[in-house]
Amino acid sequence: MTFRFARHTNNIEQIKSFYIDILGFELLGGFENHNGYNGVFIGKSNENWHLEFTKSEEIVLFNFNEDDILVFYPNNKSEFDFIMNKIHSKKIEFIKAKNPYWNNSEASEGKMILDPDGYRVIISDLKIK
Known about the structure:
Layout: E1 3-8, H1 12-22, E2 26-34, E3 37-43, E4 49-55, E5 69-72, H2 77-89, E6 111-114, E7 120-123
Parallel strand pairs: 1-4, 5-7
Antiparallel strand pairs: 2-3, 3-4, 6-7
């Protein structure tokens, strides 16, 4: 099965920069003026998932809550450390999760941040062997 998470945004360039430059994903493709929408596909090559972000003339009024989270599990410690170093260098603040599980250091050394749209993102080292 292939998975795509699609979300509309007001600033596709900020979103693209965040997910590529900070989280280390790749620009897999995109489109312009497809029925009034521009979009980008972001993820990792040769994986069966990707994120799609679209923009149109419509202004997005975001309607997600504190439990709506994208959780990413880096494959190894160096990938996790790379992302953490990018987050620190860009002075992105960590925030506390509403769900106490994500704040439990025994469950994960991962951290929660906000993407440019205010959507919650967790980078977790739980799966690192």
